[in-house]
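Example record

The entry below shows one chain as it appears in the dataset: sequence first, then structure tokens.
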Amino acid sequence: MANKTFGLALGAGAMRGMCHIGVLEVLEQHNLVPDMISGTSMGAVIGGLYAAGVSIDQMKEIKSENIIRELCGDINIEDCKIPFVAVAVDVVSGKTVYFDKGNLTDAIRASYAVPGVFAPVKMGNMLLMDGGLKERIPVNILRDKGAKYVVGVNPCESIIEGKYPASLPEQIGRMFEIMDWEITRNKLHEADFVLSIKSKLMSSANVSEARIAYEQGYEAAAENIELIKKRIHRKDKKFSGIFRKR
């Protein structure tokens, strides 16, 4: 991945993360295809599929985890059309795990594994869970891989006031949502440009609202695309050379 220019870091956010499809669609329309992509949780799902060559229209039809392997098959990450990194956490060692090689589907599954929803992934002595535990928007790994300019996509700009969490699962979920936001807020400065989605979704787990998340991502990217291009140009004088069709 060395000597690449434009890196795109796609953040965690459950179904709110479907906004990434809209963001990628706008970038593609402007021939601004990332040289490398990183992703956490839903960001790993969308980023990994896109890196493997899955079309925007195909990704819009995602409704369950079963379709991921159907869309990308048994491709290895190192064989993706765009260099890609998925982020997970080994809860045994407490360390962040970056997948830039090996089976793409397995890496994606590890990145979004949340006990009680999606089973943790066992690999050797590791027990892998959602990368959002430590790195919701994986910017720095793209720097390490050579990206000169990194756009981070945050699926939820701020904490959304939701309904009263009456049940224990709802209370636990809301607790982690707030903790997650605090971690994210303190690390947003690591990207050159952060595209934060003004999400109106009350629930991050409602599959029926995936279309709304996509539309919000598209609108946010469309509103900011010229600014993103200006920022890249300011940092990289060879900016015009990175325009390319997918």
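Notes for this example: The mean pLDDT is 85. The two ends are 17 Å apart (CA to CA).
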